[in-house]
Amino acid sequence: IYICIIYIKCCISIFIFIILFIAIFTVFIFFYIRHNYDLVSDKYYREGANYSTRLEIVTRSQVYFDIIHVLQSENYIALYPAESILRDSNKFDVWFYRPSVKKSDFIKEISIDGDSLTINKASLSRGRYILKIDWFMDNIEYAIEKDIFIEKTLSE
Questions:
Q1: Concatenated DSSP letters of 47-92
Q2: Residue 72 to residue 150: CA distance in whole angstroms
Q3: I need a labelling partner for 151 at 20 to 30 A (CA). Which of 14, 98, 128, 144 fits?
Q4: Nearest-angstrom CA–CA distance, 92 and 111
Q5: Are the beta carbons of 108 and 119 closer than 8 angstroms?
Q6: 119 - beta bridge partners?
Q7: DSSP-based three-state secondary structure for 134
Q8: Is this structure's pTM higher than 0.90?
Q9: Taking the mean position of all CA atoms in its chain, how far away is CA 36?
C-alpha cells in the first residue's frame, strides 16, 4: 500500500508538471504571435554592403551627439541643433525608426529656418523609437541616433 501511495503521488506530480509546462508554453506562443517583429530592412543587402561607410559616418558624428538636443512637449518634438551645425547646414533628414512596428516609421526631410525644428506627435504612435538624424556639413555626411520614447496623452 505504501508503494502504491508513492506511485500515485509521483504520477500526480508528473501530471501537474506537464499541465504547467503546456500552459506556460501556450502563453509564450500567444504573446509571440501577437507581437510583430520587423527587424530586417527591405534594403538589407544594400545596407549591408554600405555598412563600413555608415560606421565611418556615425563615428565622425559622435562629437555632435550631445549638442543636438531633443525635447518633447505635449504635442510636438523639438530638435535643437547647435549653432555651429545650423551655420553650415540647414537641411536634415529625420527618421523615427520603430524596430518593432515597421508601419510606424516616419521619415521627413526638414529645412530649418530658425534655431529648431518641430515635428507634430500626431504622426507618431506611443512607444520607443530610434531617432536618426542625417545632415551634410562642408559636403561631408553626418548622422546620429538617439533613443526616444513617445508619450501620448489619454485624449489622443
A1: HHHTHHHHHHHHHHHGGGGGGSEEEE-SSEEEEE--HHHHHH--EE
A2: 8
A3: 144
A4: 6
A5: yes
A6: 77
A7: strand
A8: no
A9: 13
Amino acid at 109: E
Whether residue 78 contacts residue 131, with contact meaning beta carbons closer than 8 Å, is answered with no
Given a contact cutoff of 8 angstroms between Cβ atoms, the answer to whether 156 and 120 are in contact is no
Tell me the average pLDDT of the chain.
Answer: 82
φ, ψ dihedrals at 71, nearest 5°: -120, 140
Contact (CB, 8 A) for 80 and 68: yes
- The amino acid present at 38, given as its one-letter code, is D
Q: Is the pLDDT of residue 78 over 60?
A: yes
In angstroms and rounded to an integer, the radius of gyration of the C-alpha atoms of the chain is: 25
Residue whose C-alpha cell is 504571435 = 33
Answer for the pair 146, 126: CB distance below 8 angstroms, yes or no: no
